[in-house]
């Protein structure tokens, strides 16, 4: 249990610049002016971005009503709105069709509506419209209102992609090279972005109706790659897509939709998908692949989440206590999973202790879900401004070295903004969480989304998307105390070879 | 000595243990599932909305009747034969006809004719069982009827029964035909591993959907066919069996006779049952055959050495074992630490890395063989690609010389190649791989050249070579008709050739044919790259490092060849996706999958080794290319 009161409160409510010497320094701090790192931090305002104003179906009211034949109207209704539209059209034009047909279609329509309302009462999220659903399950807080729709760092280079309100995607690189803008006819209501690991160019985009894979040539100077560079992957009944996850080896892509009970495992190059269906939960909202690739978390809209084991693709059910799983992050070695539940100020930890690979055991993870942390109470940030923070945990992010954990706490009303609380974490000898501080934005800006840079040299780098459309980077400078697990020899070797001209393979050094 | 020799596990025995046993298990499961599907069929065929109680009781009494039991026995026989055909005809490398003529030749091949005949018979058998089960007016071929003028009772032809039987034959033929067109017997491996039962459960809705759709299509086509030509079998049957035709009943080859809802319902239900039985057998066979098999990496006993992974990888006789071994290699390289350590281990007396050497050699020879194939194809397209497409003009000399190349250039048995030798050796073996994609077959329509390429079999010299004039007959002749067919067949062939001469070359088919067996290469790439990446921290003796330069060069050379291939016309166009069919079309996109797997493999190695790659001894151009990967600019 941890009270937010023990967090070191910033002296002023100014923008946090970076962490140094275990201290979060803000812009107004004496002697600190410059932006600490050389990364682009663009700002987008709602006014400059023109979103698509209304869906196509509502543009009908603009045009004059013209009487078509019944056949034409029926065909149009079938094309626009499927079976529902067809039945609706037949019922509405009762004077033109035989009576039995009108009555029959009215009955079928009523039956369908009743059935879907029953289905909707089991799974309330199914009654939402497509856009509402994306807004509900997006990792971006306040998705429908935000100028930024999604954000993703490239796993290997200093490059990130931002999805904007006007359904375009911009790609920024660290140097001042041109920023390509990606636009595609199918690219609507972007909910998630992810770069393909072990690849320089492929970016997966979760859209309202389909999945787009952009191949943006890193060497190209073009600012508007053609839509021929994008691969469209779609599967009937699998939309809107709210979450995607590449396997760490880059060979598979998993996509999830809250409407579809099966998640799709795509072999992207071959454009083939294997559906993995589990009916319970009524859909899949959030996916997260463990960094070692052995497990995949799949959250559902109900109080249930699953952890898939990716060797034989079997899953474990985890019925939550209350609320659905909102966000999650894996420890760098894949042995620990932190989860936050909707409506709770609690972080749960799931530890996996299995020996995959050593004894060829398929899946015997003795796992335990334990209450890791209760973020209780409120912290008064500044007595002068009369602001207090604290609330439901809605997003979690763990840096790749496993030393900083950022927690996005949702705000409520005025004087109670959303805030990012950062913890220092350590996994050995015992798991430890120590409060580090709050990351603040400029005055009036609330954090919407955050992600750690996947390979920052000097510690950790948190990138935050703010409500005023700004993207800022907050570096945390620290020297690694000890790596959280896994490939320590590799890292040690990498640090050995400081001089690239005298690089040798390690056996040469040993012998 | 003799005893140890007899105790040694023969590779054939491993094949028997794995593949035969698996197909037997799949057939057994299809037989076991047969009563369930039959029960569902009975329920659906007797369905009546307004008398539910009568319906249920009728069905339960029917299910225990002796006629149903007999039908079940007949159906079991059908399933057994289907299973045997699956085992006989299945292929891991699809045969891709490069032209319409080749497709026609495949359909008319004697082996395929036997196949169609057997499926027609089986279709009729199943439909006979179905009509007996449905009962009522469908049950027998002859029914008593009263002649109109004399009033005496004679046996008349029951056209409903005949209709269903003929529908069975038609569906059997269309199944056999579509099997060729859609590559029904092509068995593809899934990108993910699943246990058999979840996979079966996941695929079952697709199979039901496919069989319903296929049955509806077939019912429509058959009804149309019967409408026009139905009188032919009807009069023939009635004259040979001395059955009268009841003139008081409405004949079925008329519009009013066919627009009978109950008849069409029963036709489509029985058709669905028929297709479902066959598709289920195919599905179970696919699931069983593609299940991952874990080979031991090394064995302490020399008797078992034949079933170890390095030996099976080098297997040349049974393709399926090679595929399973490569799949196992890809899996162990990603998931199993202990087996990776075995791969990196040294032999106990002597201290040689035999396991790693054998595995890496086999993978690299596969990859460099693909490189050569691609280079040869590019040269062929660059030099005379246009000649090939203008095939209507007969060019005797070039065609005959080309075929001589095919027959005379010996197939390369590819040893381990250093990157330098790839270029030189590719020059020698160019022409063999050159025409190979355009001559998908020599002796069998169901084995594509890739099979033989992979297996390294010698191409039999056909007696047709050198005697024929047309390059198309030349290329496809041996596959179309066996040598015994004489002058008439050849005349017919050239006539047909004229028909099909417009748009002879199917687009992108040659590209598909080149990569038809690329699943093997993808696994080899995955296995190699993951093993090399794992060796960074797991290889205690540095066995991988000695081969690292050649692996890197091999990958880069292949990448260059693949890049060049995708610049050819049609190579990068995506195929149209089929909506719903049992035929697997994954082979159409294998080239894209191979390119992605290749890049991922190189990235896997470069990200793991990072700057250490500067210490690896490779040529400057290759290092330049790898530098692109290190900077993530590919």
Protein described:
- The complex is a heterodimer of chains A (511) and B (634).
- By secondary structure, chain A is an alpha+beta fold.
- Chain A has helices at 70-92, 99-122, 130-137, 488-496, 506-510, and strands at residues 2-3, 16-20, 23-26, 148-153, 159-164, 169-173, 181-182, 192-195, 202-206, 211-215, 230-233, 243-246, 253-256, 262-267, 272-277, 286-289, 295-299, 304-309, 314-319, 325-330, 336-341, 346-351, 368-376, 379-382, 387-389, 393-398, 404-409, 419-426, 432-439, 447-452, 459-466, 471-477.
- Chain A has a domain at 69-132.
- Chain A has 5 helices and 32 strands.
- In chain A, helix 1 crosses helix 2.
- The radius of gyration of chain A is 25 Å and the shape is globular.
- The N and C termini of chain A lie far apart (51 Å).
- With 634 residues, chain B is mainly alpha-helical.
- In chain B, a hairpin with a 6-residue loop joins strand 1 and strand 2 (153-157).
- Chain B has helices at residues 2-7, 11-45, 52-63, 66-89, 100-108, 110-134, 159-181, 196-229, 231-240, 255-258, 261-289, 309-313, 319-335, 337-344, 354-389, 396-408, 419-428, 430-435, 449-455, 471-480, 487-499, 509-514, 518-538, 548-565, 590-609, 620-630, and strands at residues 142-146, 153-157.
- Chains A and B meet through strand 15, helix 4 and helix 5 of A and helix 14, helix 23 and helix 25 of B.
- Chain B: It comes from Cyprinus carpio (Common carp).
